Amino acid sequence: MVNVSSYQFFKEVREQLKEHFSEEADSLAFIIVEHFSGFNKTEIITDKSFISDPKFELQIKSIIERLIKNEPIQYTLGRAYFYDRPFKVSVHTLIPRQETEELVHLILTYVKGKQNLSILDIGTGTGCIPITLKLEAPFHKIEAIDIGQDTLEVARENANNLGAEVAFKQLDILEKEPSKSYDVIISNPPYVLNSEKLAMKDNVLDYEPHLALFVENNNPLLFYKRITELSTQYLNPNGRLYFEINEQFGNQVVGLLKEHSFNEVKLYQDLNGKDRFVSGSIS
Q1: Are both 177 and 219 inside the same structural domain?
Q2: Which CATH number do you get for residue 274?
Q3: Which end of the chain has fewer CB atoms < 10 Å from its terminal CB, N or C?
Q4: In sequence order, what DSSP letters do the residues of 154-172 get, joined into one string?
């Protein structure tokens, strides 16, 4: 084991990154040093030292090589933060986004003060939504489904690591139905059109799972239609449905819920002012 000066380590990593990431070198270097040291930025700047494996320099070299190939740093480290908690990510899962944190906040505002709600997350990925809900609102029963067994293994590992009691199940929502009713149903389904690929960054296209991202141009509301229809059957009276959406289709998703007799249908903007969430209540 070796004793490492965190700020010196930061400067060395930053120098290696500058040639390829002139604008992002500082932020990437901080993320890498935080990952290996467990320190925050203030602790790094004040040059706290930490003990590390002698081989960690080889790990740093490998990470930088992967970053140069446009691999997202979350995948190179195997971890992303959501609601200030570390979540394992893999090639089978999307990287959790800030917008989804905003969705969780909306749901937490609704469930605050309520007891023993049953909640279902459809297309859970890393499990960041149900795990965070369970940790922030522990008096509710939370379940989650996903089509991918590899994806669910990551979600279960995250739940175990973070101490969240969430029930996970493999289910293709386009082919099968839930086996019970819920008070809240949530989904952040694939919503990026195939035609939008040209505008996306290489690090997303080359590394994040397309199955979790894209839908056909001629059927952009595929998952929204299916989940809305199922929710009319599997939401308890006064139950609520929450969606994260493609900003292009806010009004269409609102119309979809209204067509299926949802009440109190609301369209919400994210922090960037883009239409991003829709919710509604069933009688």
Answers
A1: yes
A2: 3.40.50.150
A3: N
A4: HHHHHHHHHT---EEEE--
- Distance CA(153)–CA(157), nearest Å, equals 6
Please tell me the distance from the alpha carbon of residue 104 to that of residue 111, in angstroms, as a whole number: 11
Q: Yes or no: say if 239 and 279 are a contact pair by the CB < 8 Å rule.
A: no
Give the domain range for residue 43: 2-69
Per-residue pLDDT of 50-99, as tens digits, reads 887 777 778 888 999 999 988 999 999 999 999 999 999 998 999 999 99
Q: Which helix (H) or strand (E) holds 185?
A: strand 182-187
Instruction: Write the pLDDT tens digit of every residue in 226-260.
Output: 999 999 999 999 999 999 999 999 999 999 999 99
d(CA 219, CA 16): 45
Indicate the helix (H) or strand (E) that contains 236: strand 235-244
170 phi and psi angles, rounded to 5 deg: -85, 130
- 0.85 exceeded by the pTM? yes
How many structural domains comprise the chain? Answer: 2
Same-domain check for residues 147 and 30: no
